[in-house]
Each structure stands twice: as C-alpha cells, then as structure tokens.
Amino acid sequence: MKALHVGLVGMGTVGAGVAKILLEKNSPLLEKLDCIPVLKGIADSNPEAKNKINIPSNVLFTADARELVNHPDIQIIVELIGGLHPAKEIITLALENGKDVVTANKMLLALHGSELFQKARQHGKSISFEASVGGGIPVIAALRDGFIANRIESICGIVNGTTNYILTKMTKEQVTYSDALAEAQKLGYAEKDPTMDVEGIDASHKLAILARIGFGVDFDYNSIYHEGISTVDLSDIWYARELGYTLKLLAIAKKGENTIELRVHPTLLPHEHPLSSVHGVFNAVCITGSAVGDAMLYGRGAGQMPTASAVVADLVDVALGRAGITFAAMKTFSGCSERFPIANALQFKTCYYLRFSVVDKPGVLAKITGILGKYEISIASVIQHKAREAGNVPLVMMTHLAEEGNLQKALVEIQQLDVIKDHTKFLRVEE
Amino acid sequence: MKALHVGLVGMGTVGAGVAKILLEKNSPLLEKLDCIPVLKGIADSNPEAKNKINIPSNVLFTADARELVNHPDIQIIVELIGGLHPAKEIITLALENGKDVVTANKMLLALHGSELFQKARQHGKSISFEASVGGGIPVIAALRDGFIANRIESICGIVNGTTNYILTKMTKEQVTYSDALAEAQKLGYAEKDPTMDVEGIDASHKLAILARIGFGVDFDYNSIYHEGISTVDLSDIWYARELGYTLKLLAIAKKGENTIELRVHPTLLPHEHPLSSVHGVFNAVCITGSAVGDAMLYGRGAGQMPTASAVVADLVDVALGRAGITFAAMKTFSGCSERFPIANALQFKTCYYLRFSVVDKPGVLAKITGILGKYEISIASVIQHKAREAGNVPLVMMTHLAEEGNLQKALVEIQQLDVIKDHTKFLRVEE
C-alpha cells in the first residue's frame, strides 16, 4: 500500500476533527494499519481557521481550494465546506484532475448525486460519503455492503439530531416547541436560522442518499415529501403518549409494488419500537431487508469527532483501494440505475392519528366516524377528554391503515360539519 | 470483475440459505452488481442435504469436502459445518490450495484464529467471518472498517439469542429458568444439549472475535471469564427490576490501562440502557470508540437468512477483491499483533448487586455494611422485604464501583456471620 496524500477543503468543526485524527502521533490508524492516509494540505477561505489546530510546517495551508485540487501530489480531496457552491465545482475539478473524493455534503449529493457519480465513473475515480448520513454510524457501508444480499424493503430513521433533541425535550420536560428550540440554539445543537433542520429539509437530503443506496435507484430529490416539526403541538405529544406512542421526526423510505414512498414527517411510533428510545442528539436507522429482517444502527449523528470518524474511515477505504472497487462494481453509481417513480402524498398508506376540536354534544362521534367509514377509514382507538374551555373538546382518534388520499377527502368533508370548531390535526403513524 | 466460483462446505440451515441466495434467478446481487459470486459446488456428508433446495445440474454435489477444496475452478470455500474438526483441516487445506475462505465458525476462530490468519497471510489469501458474530448484523465490518479511526474503548453485547430469549421470557412472563429453556427448545431456539449457549461459551467465542478485531490484539481464548444463566434466579430478576435494572447475558470487552477485561456473565443494566430493550432472539452490540463515542448495532443474531445474508456479503467482499486488501493491510491479521494481558476475575471493576439471605433481627445491616466498608465497598442502594419464611429475609444491595477481589474477600467474611443463612448471590452491573 502506497501512502496517499490528502487535501482537506474546509477547516470547520468536522474538518478540524479530521485533521486532528490524521495528524495524531499515536493515531489509531497507525496501530491498526501498516500505512495511513497522509494530510498534505488544508484549504479554508478564513485565515483564522489555521489556528484551530497545530498544523505542522510540512502541511500546506491555503485560502484557495484550487491549490489543493490542482496539486500533483494530492490523490484524495476531502470536501467539508458543505452547501452546493463552490463544493460542486471543487469536487468536479478534483474528479477531472484524477483525484478521489470524500465528502460529508448531503445537500450536494441529494441534489446532484447522479451527475457527480457519473463524473467520477467517467474519470475512473470514486466518491465516498459515509459522513453525509448519521455522523459516525456506518450506515452507508451497512446498506451498501453489509446488506448487499438483501432486497431492502424499508429504511426508517431518526437522521437529524437537532429535531430529535427538540422533540425529546418537549416530550420529557413538557416544554413548548419554541422553548425547546431556544435551548437547542443555546447549546449549539440548532443553528441561528434553524429552517434546514426543523423543516425536515436536512433529513430529506439524508433520506435521498439512503434511498439511492438501499434501493439502487435514481429519482428526483424534489419528489421527496417533507414536513418539519415547527407546528408540533405539545398536546399531541401528550395524547400520543396516552395511546402508547412517541413522536419522532422520521425519514422513511418504503418500496411498494410500483413506487417508492419517500417521506419525512413527524411520526408516532409505539413506545416499544426501537426508534422510540433514541433520545436527544442521537441518530438511528432501522433497515428491513429480505434476508436479514429488521436491523438497526444507532449512534451520534453529528458532532466533530463522530463525523470525523466516518470521514477518516472513508479515507482509509480510498487509500486501501476498496472505495474504487466498490464504486466501479455497483450499478447504483454507474449512471445506469433506473429512475423510479416516487409515490405522491395522496398515495401514502399508513395509520393516522387525528385530533378534532369539536363541540361537546351528542352525535358528534357518529357524524365523524360516519364520514371516515365512507372513505374506508376504520378507527382503532378513541380518546375524548373533558372540555378545557366551554363547549370545545379535543377528540383524538387512531385509525387503521388507510390511504392518505381518502383521508384528505374525509377531512375536507368533516371540516364542513358544524360540530367541528378548529383545524383538524393529523399525524402519521408507523407500527 | 471476474466471476469467482464458490464451493459451499456444509449444507445445514445456514448453508441452504446461502445456496438459496446465490441460486436465486432475480438475486438482489444481480440487481446491484455487474457480476456475482457463482455457486459451483456443495459438499455435505449427509446425502439427504441435497434435497433441502433445488440444486441445478451444473452445481456439483458431493459428500467429500476435499473434492471442492481441491477443485481447480473453485476460488472461494465457504465453511459452514461448524466445530473444530474437520472444519480446521478443510480451511487449512483451502488456504494451502490458494482459495479464500468465508466462515461462520466462531468456535474455530476463537480457539485457532491466530494460526489460521497466519496461514492465510502466508498464502496471500483471506479469511472472512462476518457471520460468526451477530448473524446478519455487520458488526465485524463496523469494528474493523467503519470505526477504524477510533481507539475502541469497550465492546458490550448481547450476542447469544438463545439466552436472550430465555431471559426475556423469564423477565416478561415470570417463568423459571427451566420452563423458559424448555420453551426455547420446543421452538428450536435452544439445542437439546443447551450447554454451549446457556453456559456462556458461545458468547465467549464471539467475544474473542470481537475483542481481537476491536483491540487489534491476540490473546489466549481460555483467559476469557465466562459464566452462564443456568443459575439465574427469578427473584433476582424481580429485585433488579425494582432497582431499575434489567438482567441480560452480556459479552463485555473493556480496555484498561494495562489489561483488557474479557467477560461473559449475567449482567444488570439500567432500564434506559439501549441493550435493556433488546428482546427475544435479537442481538445487539454497543461499541464505544475514541472518536465516535457510543454506537450500537442491532438485529437478528441467528437464523437461516440473517446469517446467510452475512455470509453472502463476505462472498461479495472476497469476489470484488476487497476482503484480500483488508486482510493484507490490517495488523491484527498479520501475526504481528501483540499478545495482550487479560484481566483475571479478581481484577474486574464493576458495581455489584448482592442478595444476602439473613435472619430478621436488628444490627444485621450494620454487620454486613461494616465488612463491606472495610474492603472499600460502598453501598448505593438497599432493599429489604418482609420475610417470606419465619426468620429468613432477603437483603438486596447495590454497590458503587468496587474491585472484585475485594468483594470476594468481603463475601467470605460476611458468609461467616451467624446472621447469614444461605449462599450470597452476586451479579455484576454495567451502567
């Protein structure tokens, strides 16, 4: 094994973690391998980034990423700047220059993965991206290699630590969404502008990557349905708990007969579901395969060293030559993977949690269930509590499996009943 | 990628599962890869094995494994007969004949791993063994590749489905050990002679493999401490629950300053520990690494298709050439890995659960805690219940972290007190 030289583009939190591991004198890599990837250069547009760690004099530091991407002695480019541009241009140039790429950039891969994978194939190079989903959890490798003998049936995960922290806090401490968000921001778990996390966009980027690897298909990222947690009401967490369910933001990919359901939304899970006990900033992904059955991988989904752990694992994979073999052998990276139809929201089939706000008088339940029945939606359980305000009571129901198109039609009709006093809330359920 | 031919030795439950996947017309492998490992021959000493699946005429069936091992057109031997002999001889001959080996044989690797790994290196071949631990869970790959940037601090797992089924049944249905074992045998989860499983021997074989990969060291298998579940008393499960703990058979490897603790024993875990919710025949392994922090892999630890899933993943790894690269690059397979001192039981440091049977009179608690204090063992919590029989009461204590050598000395001294009426039970605790 020859020593491969690494150029690190982006010296943010994760970049500094990667540099730390690569520069460590008694690195775990040296303990385990005869030879390790060697850090040759670091690029960051912020000159202050240089001071994050002690950079030895034989490691180049530059503000210009192109200096590394064009460097003849660098064989691997690690892209850790995130976002679409200039990350895409840097990766493209690196591949064109005959360098392998390691990246944690989920947004870029979700939106332009196919194009970049084709570019890599065209130049006989590889793109590795374990760190793009689930931080230090080796979920890409498991889906791609460990479960290769399986037809993947579903992938279902908590892949965003920020929202899981917020929901955990709301559930355990009964604080409102805004208070939990404020706390997450204070602790550095949420950004100042939390949109990407709380609206489920980050999770949908990760879902796009997982679904491509798991199902070996290509699709338009924009066909992923996503809904965040910013409208989650504390009372729904309480009622759900009473019914034996925990609320989580899940990224779900399920292969049906002719379509794939790809959806990110707040989801009720039975308390005994393994994902129900994934708390705080932890991530976990459940995978169901035709041979392996149900499996789960769990760990820290973000943070400097967990994410750096995944980046460095990819670097070793490239340095040893395994990444190149994998990339060349797998159809999903070859550009010949099929485009697969994605189900639209009206085609989803799940159980539903419904919370109606109704007037407290006889016959209300009959009217509502009558309409639901008309649309073939049957009820699994009902909770009705005493009125908090005069005349208005919450009526909570759990349905059996139903089609979302039918549910939507029923809800429109129910909304027109004079006994309905407010907007009806619904949440999807996974069993 | 050239098509590599596979010789399958041992057509038991798992062997038939592997053959099924390899022979499937619309195999998931074909969906994902350009080229797949091809089943060339099957060997089983039992001619009836032939009828387990529909073997095509171009696949050789023989009673004599040597026919496959010496076959010039076979490049990979899958050994699935288990046990030490003739598995060891078959694998050795396969390596000498220039064939790569895939095996699920945990006992053989635990006892003779070093010798076989050296033999493989000597012939430039590889041994892959994902299926030897945790069935379909890709835990070997995670420890070896996914967490390569980590110094592994501890590995802690439920790696035996039989005992986890029995303990789950005892805990949830409050049946005795013998009744739970009988049920497990009826369902095919336990063998007629269940010794290997219930005495923790199978788990210690798996622990030997995990510890070698995780810590990159070699050691004498016999230095692993193991204790089974056959003496677990239902009352200890109850008291533990009262204290907030669940009883599980754990395989634990922990790196200390100068030694490694390697131990398999019934263990109390806090209810909120992720391993506490691993029920029935499921397996799970928690890994703590220097960069990744806490991670867990969970899934079916046994059974035909989950185990076959892991075997076939190894076959793909060999066929693509990745297994050979890994095997050549990693020090732990090179024969140059250090022998590392293993802690003996007296050096273990954990918290302990103690159940004394005492006479119900004043001053008993003072006497016992006095002796414990003398040996620097302090008490975290105590439960004392009313006597079931006249004069004899169980006194349950949970200690803080203590050295097992000290505990043993204290227990010998306590046993001599006239207030102690029976053998004292102790269980180790992980937090």
TrEMBL record, chains A, B:
Catalytic activity: L-homoserine + NADP(+) = L-aspartate 4-semialdehyde + NADPH + H(+)
Protein's pathway: Amino-acid biosynthesis; L-methionine biosynthesis via de novo pathway; L-homoserine from L-aspartate: step 3/3; Amino-acid biosynthesis; L-threonine biosynthesis; L-threonine from L-aspartate: step 3/5
Residues in ACT domain copies: 353-431
Chain residues that bind NADPH: K106
GO MF term (any one): homoserine dehydrogenase activity
Residues annotated for NADP(+) binding in this entry: V9, G10, M11, G12, T13, V14, G15, A16
Positions annotated to bind L-homoserine: E191
UniProtKB keywords: Amino-acid biosynthesis, Methionine biosynthesis, NADP, Oxidoreductase, Threonine biosynthesis
Catalytic residues (UniProt): K206 (proton donor)
InterPro entries: ACT-like_dom_sf, ACT_dom, Asp/hSer_DH_NAD-bd, HDH, HDH_cat, HDH_CS, NAD(P)-bd_dom_sf
Listed GO biological process terms: methionine biosynthetic process; threonine biosynthetic process
CDD domains from the UniProt entry: ACT_HSDH-Hom
EC number: 1.1.1.3
Source taxon at top rank: Bacteria
Family: Belongs to the homoserine dehydrogenase family.
Protein's name according to its UniProt entry: Homoserine dehydrogenase
Lineage: Bacteria, Pseudomonadati, Planctomycetota, Candidatus Brocadiia, Candidatus Brocadiales
